[in-house]
C-alpha cells in the first residue's frame, strides 16, 4: 500500500507499506551482492536504508547460498530485518543474453525464501534495439507478468519497451491493470552509462503519463546522487545502487554534482564520518580491502544525504530550484531538463497550486516550470486598475503583489507601475478572489465586505456587513481561506461541480463535524482542481458539508485506495465562522 504525504512537481514523499513494514520514499535500495558483501546489510540502517535489494538468481545459482536461504530465509541469511527486494536475473539476461531458469521457477524460489518484494523474469530491451525486437520482448514480458500475479507475493511489474515511447506507454497501461506493488522502469542503465539523459526523461514521463499514480516507481539502476533530484521531480520514488561499491572499486568518489577520481583529490569535500576522519591521501594509502569499504561508505553517505535534501525540498516546495542547480553539473543533464516543456500538461496536473517557499529564479530554465504558464493563464481576463511587470509572468495585476507566486518571487525586474488609479482594499480582495476562484467571483463573494488588517497593516480578515467572517487572507501565500459563511457564498456563485469534492453519504456526518476526507469516500470532483487548492466539500445533492485544502490531484484521488484527499478546515456543524468583529 502506498500513500502520498507531500508533493512538488511529480515528486512526492510517500509511505510504502509491505505487510507490517513501511518505508518512506523517495529512498535508495543499496544493492547487496551475496557473494561479496562490502558493507554488511545490518549496517545499512546507519546510512538511512530501510530497504535493500539483492539478486535471487545469484542466490539460486550458488548452491551454498541457496541452501541457507531456503533453510533460514532471506532476512536471516542477510541479517537484515527491513524490507528486502530481489531481482530475478533480468540483469544477467541483459548482460549475457540468456539464463537457465524459468519465470515460474524464480518466482517460486523468491516466495520460498521469504522476500518482501519479488520480481518476475522480464525481458530487458537494449535502448538501440529495433521496434520489432522491442515489441516482441515486451509481449514476452507482459505474458510473464500475467503469469506472475498468480503467485501470492508482492511483486515488481517492470515496464519495458526500449526507447520506443509507444511501447513504454503500452507497457505502463498494461501494468496498471495488474496488481503489482511497485512498477520499476527497466532497460535504462545503458542510457545512464552513455549520458543519454534526454531519452531517459522521455521514457520516465511517458511512463508516468500512462501509469496509475498510486504505484511507486522504481528507476532500475539509478543510484548516482547527481541524477536523483531530477528523477524524483519526474516522479520516481525508489532507486537501487551498486554504484557505491562499483565506483569505489575504481577509486571514484561520488558527489551530488558529479564523480571525482580519488587519486586526483587533495581535499574531501564532505562531512560524513569517513571524510571527517581521513584525508584524501590517507584514504589512498589504505590497504585495498579497507579502502574499498571506506570509499563505499562515503558513497552511500553522499547518496542518502542527497535524498534527505530532496525530501526537504519537496516539503518546502523548492524541488524545481534544487533540480535547476543540479542540472548545471553536466551539460547533458541541462539538455534533458529542457525536455519537460514537452510534458507541461502532465507536470501541471500534479504540481501544487501554492508552496511553502518563495519562487527563486536560477536561470532561463526556471521559465519551464509549470507554475509559470499556469499563472499566466490564470491572470488572463482579470480586470485590474493597475499593472506591474514581473520577471516570470510579465504584466500582472498590482492587487496580486503579495499573492503567491507574485509576492513570493526572490528575483524581480524593477517594477514599472502602469496606471494612476489608487487601489482600494475592495479592489485587492476582488482581484485575489478572481485569481483564486475564477473571473467574476470576487465581486459577488465580497459584495458587502468589511476588511480588517493585521498588526502589520496587511489585509487579513474579511467580514460581511453583519460582522460574520467570510474568509482569511493567509500571510504565507496571500490566498484566501474561506470560512463556512464564505464557502456558502462560493457554492452559490460557482456552478456545480467546479471547486467541489463530492463525497458519499457514509462520510458526510463526519465531515460536517470537521473530519478529513479520505480518498475512498470521494465519488466525484472537479477535474480541473490542483493540489493544495481550497475546495468545497459537498454531497451528491450539492449540500455543503465543509471546506478544506485539497491534498492530491484529482487523478491521484481516483487512483488511491487510502490516504487523505482533503484536509478539512471547517465542517458546517463544527466551525468558528460565526466569529464577529
Globally, the shape reads globular
Note the beta-strand portion.
Answer: 15-25%
Please count the beta strands (DSSP E, at least 2 residues each): 25
* CATH fold name of the largest domain: TIM Barrel
| The CATH fourth-level homologous superfamily of the largest domain | Queuine tRNA-ribosyltransferase-like
Spatial ordering of strands, largest sheet: 6-5-4-11-10-9
Helix % is 25-40%
Distance between the termini: 47 Å
The averaged pLDDT comes out at: 93
Protein name: tRNA-guanine(15) transglycosylase
GO molecular function: pentosyltransferase activity; RNA binding; zinc ion binding
Pathway: tRNA modification; archaeosine-tRNA biosynthesis
Enzyme class: transferase
Summary?
This protein has 581 residues and is α/β, with parallel strands linked by helices. 37% of the residues lie in helices and 19% in strands.
Provide an overview of this structure:
One of its GO terms (cellular component) is cytoplasm. It is an enzyme of class 2 (transferase). The structure is a single chain. By secondary structure, this protein is α/β, with parallel strands linked by helices. It has two domains: 2-317, Queuine tRNA-ribosyltransferase-like (TIM Barrel), CATH 3.20.20.105; 425-571, Archaeosine Trna-guanine Transglycosylase, Chain: A, domain 4 (Roll). The chain contains 23 helices and 25 strands. Helix 10 (225-233) runs parallel beside helix 14 (288-316) and helix 11 (243-249) crosses helix 14. The protein starts with a strand and ends in a 10-residue tail after the last strand. Mean pLDDT is 93; it is low at 411-420.
Amino acid at each position: 500500500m502506498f500513500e502520498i504525504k507531500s508533493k512538488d512537481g511529480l515528486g512526492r514523499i510517500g509511505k510504502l507499506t509491505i505487510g507490517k513494514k513501511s518505508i518512506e520514499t523517495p529512498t535508495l535500495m543499496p544493492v547487496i551482492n551475496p557473494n561479496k558483501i562490502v558493507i554488511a546489510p545490518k549496517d545499512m540502517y546507519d546510512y538511512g536504508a530501510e530497504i535493500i535489494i539483492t539478486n535471487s538468481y545469484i542466490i539460486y545459482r550458488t548452491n551454498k547460498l541457496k541452501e541457507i536461504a531456503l533453510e533460514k530465509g532471506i532476512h536471516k541469511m542477510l541479517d537484515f530485518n527491513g524490507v528486502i527486494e530481489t531481482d530475478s536475473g533480468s540483469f544477467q539476461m541483459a548482460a549475457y543474453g540468456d539464463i537457465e531458469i524459468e519465470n515460474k521457477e524464480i518466482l517460486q524460489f523468491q516466495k520460498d525464501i521469504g522476500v518482501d518484494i519479488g520480481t518476475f523474469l522480464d525481458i530487458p530491451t537494449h535502448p538501440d534495439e529495433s521496434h520489432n525486437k522491442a515489441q516482441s520482448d515486451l509481449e514476452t514480458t507482459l505474458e510473464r507478468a500475467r503469469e506472475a500475479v498468480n503467485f501470492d507475493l508482492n511483486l515488481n511489474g517492470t515496464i519495458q519497451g526500449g526507447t520506443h515511447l509507444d511501447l513504454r506507454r503500452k507497457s505502463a497501461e498494461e501494468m496498471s491493470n495488474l496488481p503489482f506493488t511497485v512498477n520499476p522502469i527497466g532497460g535504462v542503465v545503458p542510457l545512464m552509462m552513455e549520458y543519454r539523459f534526454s531519452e531517459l526523461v522521455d521514457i520516465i514521463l511517458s511512463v508516468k503519463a500512462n501509469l496509475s499514480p498510486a504505484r511507486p516507481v522504481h528507476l532500475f539502476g539509478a543510484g548516482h546522487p547527481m541524477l536523483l533530484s531530477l528523477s524524483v521531480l519526474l516522479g520516481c520514488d525508489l532507486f537501487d545502487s551498486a554504484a557505491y561499491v562499483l565506483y569505489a572499486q575504481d577509486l571514484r568518489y561520488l558527489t551530488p554534482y558529479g564523480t571525482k577520481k580519488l587519486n586526483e583529490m587533495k581535499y574531501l569535500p564532505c562531512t560524513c564520518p569517513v571524510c571527517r576522519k581521513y584525508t584524501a591521501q590517507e584514504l589512498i594509502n589504505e590497504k585495498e580491502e579497507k579502502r574499498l569499504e571506506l570509499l563505499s561508505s562515503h558513497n552511500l553517505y553522499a547518496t542518502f544525504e542527497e535524498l534527505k535534501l530532496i525530501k526537504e525540498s519537496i516539503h518546502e516546495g523548492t524541488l524545481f530550484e534544487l533540480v535547476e542547480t543540479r542540472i548545471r553539473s553536466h551539460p547533458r543533464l541541462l539538455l534533458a531538463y529542457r525536455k519537460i516543456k514537452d510534458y507541461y500538461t502532465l507536470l501541471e496536473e500534479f504540481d501544487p497550486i501554492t508552496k511553502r517557499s518563495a519562487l527563486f529564479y536560477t536561470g532561463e530554465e526556471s521559465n519551464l516550470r509549470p507554475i509559470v504558464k499556469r499563472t499566466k493563464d490564470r491572470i488572463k481576463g482579470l480586470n485590474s486598475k493597475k499593472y506591474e511587470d514581473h520577471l516570470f509572468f510579465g504584466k500582472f495585476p498590482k492587487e496580486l503583489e503579495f499573492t503567491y507566486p507574485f509576492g513570493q518571487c526572490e528575483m524581480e525586474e524593477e517594477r514599472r507601475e502602469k496606471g494612476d488609479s489608487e487601489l482600494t482594499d475592495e479592489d485587492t480582495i476582488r482581484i485575489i478572489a478572481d485569481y483564486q476562484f475564477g473571473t467574476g467571483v470576487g465581486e459577488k463573494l465580497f459584495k458587502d465586505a468589511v476588511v480588517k488588517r493585521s498588526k502589520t497593516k496587511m489585509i487579513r480578515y474579511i467580514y460581511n456587513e453583519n460582522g460574520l467572517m467570510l474568509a482569511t487572507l493567509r500571510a504565507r501565500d496571500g490566498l484566501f481561506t474561506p470560512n463556512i459563511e464564505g464557502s456558502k457564498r462560493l457554492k452559490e456563485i460557482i456552478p456545480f461541480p467546479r471547486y467541489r469534492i463530492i463525497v458519499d453519504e457514509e462520510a458526510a456526518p463526519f465531515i460536517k463535524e470537521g473530519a478529513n476526507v479520505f480518498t475512498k469516500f470521494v465519488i466525484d470532483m472537479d477535474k480541473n482542481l490542483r493540489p493544495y487548492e481550497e475546495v468545497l466539500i459537498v454531497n451528491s445533492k450539492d449540500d455543503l458539508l465543509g471546506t478544506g485544502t485539497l491534498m492530491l490531484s484529482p487523478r491521484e484521488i481516483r487512483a488511491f485506495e487510502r490516504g487523505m484527499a482533503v484536509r478539512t478546515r471547517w465542517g458546517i456543524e463544527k466551525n468558528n465562522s460565526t466569529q464577529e468583529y
